[in-house]
Design brief:
Beta-Lactamase, 23 helices, six-stranded antiparallel sheet, alpha+beta, about 675 residues, five-stranded antiparallel sheet
Length: about 675
């Protein structure tokens, strides 16, 4: 009996350990899938909210820019700063500026309407305001209830303000304990007074962050109790939450967080764009992502409690483990009972041991089947005749067949001829090569087309050679990638529209260049990734023109040496705009070589093999489009003349293969008159 018990305990222990390992692996896979799902979901939410905040910032800055660019405002403010104007004249000028500021404030939402009914004898600190100050920060005109200039505004004024733009400040709390953010714009003198580079005043607009900005952080397309977003900003040597928190609203702008820590806030601020698993301000483990807010030092963090996000898989793991423990205890009790009964009835010992062993094996098989049937990925095993030897529950449910009924059936009869034709070559190749392989296919199951990564593994199934196919659904991942690509294209289109508005003589230049460059790349049999990088570079290559005065771009007379130097600096302006953006492929490198030639006669002197192939195409096509397009100082050249010019310098300034491909495109593929 002792020997039987010892053998039984060892066997049960092994079974228990194996089953526990399988349960852990199963639940780990489920958790990994859930984490991947939430990474995608949080990234999409962060992209949407950061875009909403950025749009709000731009919409808030726009009316201030209109006021600072107003020549009347600049003229009156300049005269007020002078000593020659009569007192009566200054009074009229101040009245004009006051009326303009109040009208703009009422129109653009820079007035605190909720406080307008308070007794005028009381001191009122407005939560929203608009004010005009001279160069010495002396108030010229403003809305009622102006508070003293905050430290956040002073810090912004002390920084190097960019002339011609609006600079947002940090978020702070005023005397009403209301969160505020200000937008500061420097006002310069008029050119005719020789003061276009001299700051003669400041326009400061203060917004109630709680009424406008914070509301953008509460818009979620996903309902989950612990899901929240917040803004982060620097303070002293640490970080603070610059917006209210769901669980700790009093900590806004108060609770200092070390920047060098491993908290979710510190990691989000230091590595924006990364997926984070860390401890938050409640000392609870969370899943989080973060994003930069354009033109500010603010960071957006969106997070969800890990337990809340992964609760189902964690509960399933606990349930399965409890079932395993109870089952093992039950089996152990049965084994003891069987051993004791066999001691009393030796003649029945063999039958009882066999019965107990059979029962244990059935329990083990049932548990393994339960684990297999709960795996969400589809699995099948086929033999050399493309007949099914095994399918799991996930696949069986998709094709509406019982797993046991599928054994021995041909792949064609289960999935249909269309999908059998796609999978059969992969299976045959795996049998032939006896190596693991991976492929991506789109399959329609239950009327829904999904994209799968299919892993094929050669194996032995019993004594028969077989191939196991593992189908992993990546439909959601690809949809997210498509959304990101669409967003990038929309941003590029907006930038190109801005370029066209700034330089009307170069309207559609970037689009034309991109279309022709892609056609040349196709003629040269480019890979899709290299062609896409070239297309993005062509669309963005003229972005630096936004930093060049419009008057130079539209000038009909020859440019001076100084003016030519300004225009030549276009590429460096493009570098400054795009240098912090991560592209797939050599996008920025291609743009920086836009004006370089094989013989080294370009702006930077780069020549020969040092020139990227993408840059050689962009240079030739950009010059070609410039020739066939009208300019302020000339009419457009005929296509034949432009092609002849390129051909003349082929092998010297331009790559021969690129020029030949451009000729091919011109003759066979593109009507340049319709671009």
């Amino acid at each position: 009996m002792k020997r039987i018990l010892t053998t039984g305990v060892i066997s049960l222990t092994l079974i228990f350990l194996i089953c526990m390992l399988l349960i852990n692996r199963f639940t780990e896979n489920q958790q990994a899938q859930s984490v991947q799902h939430w990474q995608t979901t949080l990234s999409a939410l962060a992209d949407n909210q950061s875009l909403s905040v950025t749009r709000w910032m731009f919409a808030t800055e726009a009316p201030l820019k209109e006021i600072t660019d107003n020549n009347s405002v600049r003229l009156y403010l300049q005269r007020l700063n002078g000593k020659s104007s009569a007192e009566q004249e200054k009074t009229a000028q101040i009245d004009y500026l006051r009326n303009l500021i109040i009208a703009a404030a009422n129109r653009e939402g820079y007035t605190d309407k909720a406080r307008s009914s308070i007794n005028a004898n009381l001191r009122i600190i407005a939560n929203t305001s608009l004010a005009l100050y001279d160069a010495d920060l002396k108030l010229v005109a403003g809305t009622p209830g102006l508070a003293p200039i905050s430290q956040a505004i002073k810090d912004t004024l002390q920084s190097n303000l960019t002339i011609g733009s609006v600079s947002p400040t940090h978020i702070w709390k005023n005397e009403n304990q209301v969160g505020q953010i200000a937008f500061v714009s420097a006002i310069t003198g008029l050119p005719q007074f020789g003061a276009e580079d001299e700051i003669i005043g400041y326009l400061i607009g203060i917004k109630n962050a709680e009424n406008e900005l914070y509301s953008l952080l509460r818009n979620f397309s996903v309902e989950l109790q612990s899901l929240e977003s917040a803004l982060l900003q620097k303070k002293d040597d640490g970080l603070v939450y610059a917006s209210p928190l769901r669980q700790d609203r009093d900590s806004t702008l108060n609770k200092l967080i070390p920047t060098n820590g491993q908290t979710a806030a510190a990691l989000a601020f230091n590595t924006p764009g990364q997926f984070i698993q860390a401890i938050d301000y409640r000392n609870i483990e969370v899943l989080a992502v973060s994003r930069n807010i354009a033109s500010t030092d603010l960071k957006l963090i969106i997070k969800v409690d890990r337990r809340d996000a992964l609760g189902q898989s964690l509960d399933e793991q606990a349930d399965l483990q409890m079932m395993l423990i109870l089952g093992t205890l039950a089996l152990l009790a049965m084994l003891v009972a069987a051993g004791w009964y066999g001691h009393l009835l030796k003649e029945q010992k063999s039958n009882e041991v066999l019965r107990a062993t059979t029962l244990a094996l059935k329990e083990k098989t049932s548990l393994l089947d339960a684990i297999n049937n709960n795996v969400t990925d589809m699995v099948m095993i086929v033999d050399q005749n493309i007949n099914l030897a095994f399918i799991n529950h996930a696949l069986a449910s998709q094709v509406a067949i019982d797993p046991e009924d599928s054994e021995g059936k041909n792949l064609n009869s289960v999935l249909g001829s269309h999908y059998a034709e796609q999978l059969s070559p992969l299976i045959k190749a795996c049998f032939a090569n006896q190596k693991e392989s991976t492929s991506k296919k789109s399959l329609e199951l239950k009327g829904k087309v999904s994209t799968f990564v299919i892993n094929l593994v050669p194996m032995l199934y019993g004594e028969t050679s077989a191939v196991m196919l593992h189908f992993h659904d990546i439909t959601l991942i690809e949809e997210h990638q498509k959304q990101q690509t669409q967003l990038l294209r929309q941003i590029m289109q907006s930038l190109m529209n801005a370029i066209d508005l700034h330089d009307p003589y170069s309207a559609n230049h970037s689009q034309k260049t991109a279309k022709i460059a892609v056609a040349v790349a196709d003629a040269m049999a480019f890979k899709e990734s290299d062609r896409d990088a070239l297309e993005i570079a062509a669309n963005l290559c003229n972005l630096g023109k936004l930093s060049i005065p419009q008057a130079l771009l539209t000038k009909t007379e020859p440019l001076t040496a100084e003016e030519r130097a300004v225009v030549k600096n276009e590429v460096q302006h493009t570098r400054e705009i795009l240098q912090n953006i991560e592209f797939d492929g050599p996008v920025l490198e291609t743009i920086l070589q836009k004006h370089e030639y094989l013989d080294g006669s370009g702006s930077q002197g780069i020549s020969g093999d040092a020139l990227l192939l993408n840059a050689r195409i962009l240079t030739a096509v950009n010059d070609f489009v410039a020739m066939i397009s009208p300019r302020a100082y000339r009419e457009s050249l005929p296509v034949e003349t432009a092609l002849a010019t390129l051909l003349k310098d082929a092998g010297k300034r331009y790559d021969r293969q690129v020029v030949a491909s451009l000729f091919h495109v011109a003759e066979n593929k593109i009507n340049f008159d319709t671009l």
